[in-house]
Amino acid sequence: MFIVLWLAAVSIAYAEQKLQVGHYDIHYMALPSTFLTPAIAHNYGIDRSPYTGFLNVVVQDRNQPGSPMIAVEISGIATNILDARFKLKFREIREGHSVYYLAECPYRDTEEIRFKLVIRNKNDLNTTIDFSQKFFND
Questions:
Q1: Distance CA 94, CA 98 (A)
Q2: DSSP state, residue 137
Q3: Residue 6 has pLDDT above 50, yes or no
Q4: Is this prediction's pTM over 0.70?
Q5: Beta-bridge partner residues of 106
Q6: What pLDDT does residue 7 have?
Q7: pLDDT at residue 13 above 60?
Q8: Following CA atoms 30, 75, 124, 3 in sequence, which dihedral angle do they give, to the nearest 10 degrees?
Q9: From CA 68, how far away is CA 118, in angstroms rounded?
Q10: Cα three-residue angle 39-46-121, rounded to 5 degrees
Q11: Cα(12)–Cα(36) distance, rounded to whole angstroms?
């Protein structure tokens, strides 16, 4: 639960984005893994490195009371400026009523990474999200 609260606070200041698709809110952000404390990175198995970014994705269902986070199918590709592609391996994290997805991606200093995510939930949600994030080394 701590990482969800911490990421919510960081998202306000950094890179959180939101997309509404039907009655779903999809929140997503990409950050350098060095934004995490060593303890949090260790707890979630994230490589805390100046050359590793991580993605956090949360899907909320506004049709349900309280707009809870829900489990979805998620996959994605990260592409750098040289068109090198990296398949994202998302891990589902469940903490209490929270459900979110984390993935890591490599980058070099001051590199912009393009992300393409595919998110599905039964026959009700089938969407693609394309966005870019520029990463900097600390």
A1: 6
A2: -
A3: no
A4: yes
A5: 52
A6: 52
A7: no
A8: -40
A9: 20
A10: 120
A11: 15
- The values of phi and psi at residue 122, to 5°, are 55, -140
Structure tokens at 104: 């890591």
In sequence order, the β-bridge partners of residue 129 are 117
pLDDT > 80? residue 12? no
With contact defined as beta carbons under 8 Å apart, do 135 and 77 qualify?
Answer: no
Query: Cα separation of 132 and 4, whole Å?
Result: 22
CA separation for the pair 46, 67 (Å, rounded): 28
Which helix (H) or strand (E) segment holds residue 114: the answer is strand 111-121
Q: How large is the average pLDDT for residues 17-43? A: 93
Q: Which residues of 93-121 are buried (b: 16+ CB within 10 A; e: fewer)?
A: beeeeebbbbbbbbbeeebebebebebeb
Tokens at 44, concatenated: 């979630």
Give the mean pLDDT of 2-16. 50
- DSSP per residue, 53-110: EEEEEEEEETTSTT--B---EEEEEEE-TT--EEEE--EEEEETTEEEEEEEEE--TT
Look at the block and give the residue holding tokens 């779903």.
24
Question: 20: which 2 tokens?
Answer: 């509404």
Nearest to 32 by CA among 54, 15, 2, 4: 54
